[in-house]
Design brief:
Elements: E1 2-6, H1 10-21, E2 25-29, H2 33-40, H3 51-61, E3 64-66, H4 70-76, E4 79-82, H5 98-107, E5 115-119, H6 127-138, E6 145-149, H7 159-164, E7 169-172, H8 176-185, H9 187-191, E8 196-199, H10 201-232, H11 236-244, H12 265-278, H13 282-309, E9 318-322, H14 337-347, E10 351-355, H15 360-366, E11 371-372, H16 376-380, E12 385-388, H17 400-404, E13 411-414, H18 421-426, E14 430-433, E15 438-439, E16 446-447
Helix pairs in contact: 1-3, 5-6, 10-12, 10-13, 12-13, 13-14
The chain binds uridine-5'-diphosphate-glucuronic acid.
């Protein structure tokens, strides 16, 4: 089938390459010409494991192409996937859907034969119905240009795997023909047993935001328990592990730490609250605001904890920050908790040096005021405290005994609860986690984390 993908960011580039991988003829377009040139030359313009191989295969087979206008897309495709961003509006909780509107307005006048326009972007409920009317009004083919909503559930870092082996496919459609067409697009995935849920436009839109809000709630829940564990002298890592054995709860997404960030969970949570309030059910969704507040408080709490550890103020202290991406396996720094903490410490007078295996260059562009190091040891040289803020697997390979000789003070805060504190302590470090029972390094007696500054 001839498919177009409009918008080739983290979502669209992966979707385009995966559609070519399952046998479609795909054209990807974007207003960002640099991104399109890179993709057309087989270069992935961001870090996403496995995407490079898929891209090369698609380009070499001739099934995948990049470049052109919305008019070219209209002439090429039978199904058009919209994959443009819907960021949070400035000074509002709501999502900015102007990118979607621009695509519909630009594409529709060129649609002269029957086709399906399938939105994949995350949108406030009601957007698809609005876009369907706009599409039919503006397209020369009229109602022959149909709209569907087909949200994606991929995680950055696992985007290829999540697309080709997704947990489920969800299609919001208004006709049997649209349902059929989407089923044939995804035929190889359906044959592999992936469930296909066909529903109305509003439910499809809501599945996506509800899922993200639920994931966010799960993370804030365990982080609230982390606070309780600290206060009670308990251990949140063991607590989460024990809770996770209950299938109804599950252990995934139950890691306590610095909280969630990225381009999706925070803004989707806020947009859901905003849309619910518009629809008159703000009271029912009020708890989601608490989830957001709890999440943001993790960052403040972590900064206070660091000040407490170094003696009350970070002013003049050397702080090594391990991790800048909002999570491992990506170079995405959007709403990164790690960078937020790094910048707050810098603003309080600390000398902050950041290491990240993939995201340092993106971080440097946005926060040139921080220092960056290519190597972990260089980041930690003369540090008064080492902060583990993004749980990249390579940080688990650090030899604490060797790193000890590089730092000024062997102090570690593992804000992702992913390192073995016992090992670090055995190698002479004083090490803290978030929500983890501490033992006094001298007396071995149980202590809680240092009082806030
Ligand atoms: C999220 C969802 O997981 C995807 O299903 C969804 O498709 C995507 O948003 C989207 O809307 O496009 P993603 O933003 O890539 O995916 O990241 P997650 O893996 O969900 O992690 C989000 C944040 O939560 C990260 O900052 C991570 O460090 C944090 N997190 C995650 C925790 O603090 N604890 C956990 O147990 C899990």
């Amino acid at each position: 089938m001839r498919i177009t993908v409009i918008g080739t960011g983290y979502l669209g580039a992966v979707h385009a390459a995966c559609m070519a991988e399952i046998g479609h003829d795909v054209l990807g377009i974007d207003t960002n010409s640099q991104r399109i040139s890179a993709l057309a030359e087989g270069r992935v313009p961001f870090f996403e494991p496995q995407l490079g191989e898929l891209l090369a295969r698609g380009l070499n087979s001739g099934k995948l192409r990049f470049g052109g206008s919305l008019a070219d897309a209209a002439a090429f495709g039978q199904v058009h996937f919209i994959c443009v961003g819907t960021p949070q509006l400035p000074e509002s909780l709501a999502a900015d859907t102007s990118g979607i509107e621009a695509v519909i307005d630009g594409l529709a006048p060129h649609l002269t034969r029957n086709c399906l326009v399938a939105g994949k972007s995350t949108v406030p409920v009601g957007t698809a119905a609005r876009m369907a009317i706009r599409l039919a009004e503006l397209a020369p083919v009229g109602r022959g240009a149909e709209l569907a909503w087909n949200p994606e559930f991929l995680r950055e870092g696992y985007a290829v795997q999540d697309t080709l082996c997704s947990d489920r496919l969800v299609a919001g459609v208004t006709s049997a023909a649209a349902d059929e067409l989407l089923r044939s697009v995804y035929a190889p995935l359906l044959e592999a047993g992936i469930p296909f849920i066909s529903t109305d436009l509003s439910t499809a839109e809501l599945v996506k935001v509800s899922a993200n809000a639920f994931l966010a709630t799960k993370i804030s829940f365990i982080n609230a328990m982390a606070d309780l564990c600290e206060a009670a002298g308990a251990d949140v890592v063991t607590l989460a592990r024990a809770m996770g054995y209950d299938d109804r709860i599950g252990s995934r997404g139950l890691s306590a730490g610095l909280g969630f960030g990225g381009g999706c969970l925070p803004k989707d949570l806020r947009a859901l609250v905003a849309r619910g309030t518009d629809l008159g059910v703000g009271d029912s969704l009020h708890f989601l605001q608490e989830i957001d507040t709890l999440n943001m408080a993790r960052r403040t709490r972590t900064v206070e904890l660091i000040s407490g550890i170094v003696g009350g103020s970070v002013q003049g202290h050397n702080v090594a920050v391990l991790g800048a991406a909002f999570k491992p396996h990506t170079d995405d720094i959007r709403d990164s908790p790690a960078l937020d903490v790094a910048v707050r410490l810098h603003r309080q007078g600390a000398h902050v040096r950041v290491h990240d295996p993939e995201a340092a260059e993106n971080a440097r562009k946005v926060f040139p005021e921080l220092d960056y190091a290519h190597a972990i040891y260089a980041a930690c040289e003369n540090a008064d405290i080492v902060l583990h803020l993004t749980d990249w697997p390579q940080y688990q390979e650090i030899d604490p005994a060797a790193l000890r000789s590089a730092v000024r003070q062997p102090r570690l805060l593992d804000a992702r609860n992913a390192l073995s504190l016992d090992r670090w302590r055995a190698d002479g470090w004083t090490a803290w986690g978030l929500g983890i029972r501490m033992a006094d390094p001298d007396t071995g007696t149980q202590v809680t984390v240092p009082a806030t500054a």
